[in-house]
Design goal:
374 residues, transmembrane, transmembrane helix, Wax_synthase, membrane, mainly alpha
Length: 374
């Protein structure tokens, strides 16, 4: 079976089995263990779906399916089981299908109705035309950077690390902005932004929490961070995401639960990324560097917070301008990314080469379809 046939199998199984099961069975069960056990067939289906694709000429599709189904779709289902995340609200059948099977995160209705806008969940990615324009721009930049990287031997340097990160940024943006334009036009709800100028990050917390891959960061927040901070796994009623902690806690306890939630969130993210790396490798071997890269971000964010609070309390110290912190944060992210995130894919294995070759092949096929000579 070719790649198109495999994609057709995924779409049909999602529409014929997963969607009716989610709408008519899961949503009617009480949140908690009942939903968790009932979700097992969907968890298994989303986990096995990427195995349809091989790790060589279908590596790009395999990574997309791993990201959309094994990661995002399963985490949205986990959120439903916990009465959290986007599926915890009431949507039409078509809207539920889009939320389940597309890499989007809708703006919560509670957030959209609020007059005081705080946090990324209250932000909107834009109208369909602006999303479509961003999709076209990112697609163009993606093609240019991929062709540039494939024009010579890939040597891992800070510049090539930035270029590879730009490819990821554009590819994820293309993957999300296209469906986002569709759902905002045809299904009548708004989605949160995918990215927000990550190169303008003034801190590590700003980078991870408000600028880089906002969709996945909010899914992780809904199913990992919020339960720890709030002190309850399952919400008895749906409330605004990322709300206040439950019960009466001392400031020290609140701070400790926040720190624990931050570390747990990055740990889970590292485990997911390491699992994706494992699935993309022919030898099915772990390299552990992706796990280390993400896990270490938690302590970095916490130390950054402590230093920032100390500086604010020290009257003799003035607040550092964002124009000073932005290049520092960018340089630090490039350095860590080069040695811990890109190195396993470029130096330790051939993953980056296989992905770039698949990207270039897709570009050539697209050019051939529109009648542009190779």
């Amino acid at each position: 079976m070719d790649a198109a046939g495999k994609l057709a199998v995924i779409v049909l199984s999602s529409l014929i089995f997963s969607l009716p099961y989610t709408v008519h069975i899961l949503s009617r069960l009480p949140a908690g263990s009942a939903r968790f056990f009932a979700c097992f067939p969907l968890f298994l289906l989303n986990k096995l779906t990427p195995s349809l694709f091989n790790v060589y000429d279908e590596i790009l599709l395999k990574l997309v399916v791993l990201f959309v189904f094994t990661w995002l779709a399963n985490f949205k289902l986990v959120g439903l089981c916990m009465n959290r995340g986007p599926l915890a609200e009431e949507w039409s059948t078509a809207q539920t299908a889009a939320i389940c099977f597309l890499p989007i995160y809708p703006v919560p209705r509670a957030a959209g109705a609020s007059n005081s806008k705080k946090g990324r969940l209250h932000d909107q990615a834009g109208d369909p035309s602006s999303l479509l324009i961003r999709w076209i721009v990112k697609l163009g930049v993606f093609c240019v950077v991929v062709v540039y990287l494939m024009s010579s031997e890939l040597i891992l340097t800070p510049f090539s690390t930035f270029a590879l990160a730009l490819v990821m940024y554009c590819f994820i943006g293309v993957l999300m902005d296209g469906p986002g334009s569709f759902v905002t036009y045809f299904l009548g709800f708004n989605i949160i932004p995918t990215f927000d100028q990550p190169w303008m990050s003034s801190s590590f917390a700003d980078f991870w929490g408000r600028r880089w891959n906002i969709t996945t960061s909010h899914m992780l927040r809904a199913v990992v961070y919020d339960p720890i901070v709030e002190g309850c796994l399952v919400r008895t009623t749906y409330v605004k995401p990322s709300g206040k902690t439950v019960g009466h806690q001392s400031p020290a306890d609140k701070l400790m639960s926040t720190f624990l939630g931050i570390c747990a969130t990055f740990l889970v993210s590292g485990i997911i990324h390491e699992a994706i790396f494992w699935c993309a490798m022919p030898d099915r071997a772990f390299r552990w560097k992706w796990l280390v890269f993400f896990t270490m971000q938690g302590p970095l964010v916490i130390m950054e917070y402590i230093v920032t609070q100390w500086c604010r309390m020290s009257r003799s110290l003035t607040q550092v301008s964002p124009w000073v912190t932005r290049p520092v944060v960018l340089a630090a992210m490039i350095y860590m990314g080069q040695h811990l995130f890109m190195a396993p894919a470029v130096l330790d294995t051939d993953l980056s080469q296989r992905v770039l070759l698949a990207c270039k092949a897709s570009i050539l096929i697209a050019l051939d379809v529109v009648g542009i000579s190779k």
